[in-house]
Design a protein that fits this description.
Structural class: mainly alpha
Number of strands: 0
Strand content: under 5%
Radius of gyration: 15 Å
Number of helices: 5
Largest sheet: none
Low-confidence stretches: none
Shape: globular
Length: 86
């Protein structure tokens, strides 16, 4: 939680860095051919319009969604088997 809150405090810098990276690099897989959508999604993820208590509830809801989610489980298995971390 503290990490997300700290990242959120600096979200304008993170988003600016992503905007600069996207210019001329829209073909990169991380931008999926639609860098504006990726940037909008990133802005939304930080929930800058919410106060801190509401953001804490938002982060907890993200954690709840990830528990036992098949994509999370598969990625954790990949990390454990191929990279050796978990």
């Amino acid at each position: 939680m503290r990490t997300f809150m700290e990242l959120r405090r600096h979200s304008h810098r993170i988003i600016l860095l992503m905007e600069m990276t996207s210019k001329g690099n829209e073909h990169l897989p991380c931008f999926g051919g639609n860098s504006q959508r990726v940037l909008d999604d990133l802005r939304e993820r930080f929930q800058n319009e919410l106060h801190d208590r509401a953001v804490m509830e938002y982060v907890h809801s993200l954690i709840d969604l990830s528990i036992d989610n098949w994509t999370t489980t598969c990625y954790d298995s990949y990390q454990r088997c191929c990279v050796g971390i978990f």
